[in-house]
Design a protein that fits this description.
binds protoporphyrin IX containing FE
């Protein structure tokens, strides 16, 4: 019933840039995804995909390909939900 999603804060997210041995995470529609496994498959290439790493990629994604069904494609890459800094401790 209540899936215990990991709560990811802005300070956690901004470390997940895909650099320095870290995975690349992004936020799309309030959900946090680990996009590292998808990297080699992105039709737009890795550098383009990495532009949304470590930050909320919702706007950028929507400007480029709003028709892409990321929820389906990245279902197995779901890390958790994006919450404000204060909410993580609550
Ligand atoms: C193309 C997925 C993020 C840039 C595509 C396509 C998919 C896809 C499925 C093919 C779309 C089609 O042919 O209709 C994703 C997913 C993303 C993501 C799942 C997020 C996790 C981004 C970001 C950028 C980007 C952040 C740029 C900042 C592009 C570009 C293409 C493309 C330029 C066109 C490639 C071409 O046709 O040559 N992406 N994308 N994508 N994507 Fe992404």
């Amino acid at each position: 019933p209540n899936t215990p999603y990991l709560r990811v804060t802005p300070s956690m997210l901004k470390r997940m840039t895909g650099r320095k041995g870290k995975d690349a995470w992004t936020v799309l529609g309030g959900r946090v995804y680990n996009i590292t496994p998808y990297m080699p498959f992105h039709p737009g290439g890795e550098p383009e995909l990495l532009r949304c790493a470590g930050r909320d990629g919702t706007k950028l994604f929507g400007e480029i390909h709003p028709w892409v069904n990321y929820e389906g494609m990245l279902a197995s890459c779901l890390v958790g939900i994006y919450v404000p800094e204060e909410a993580a401790a609550a």
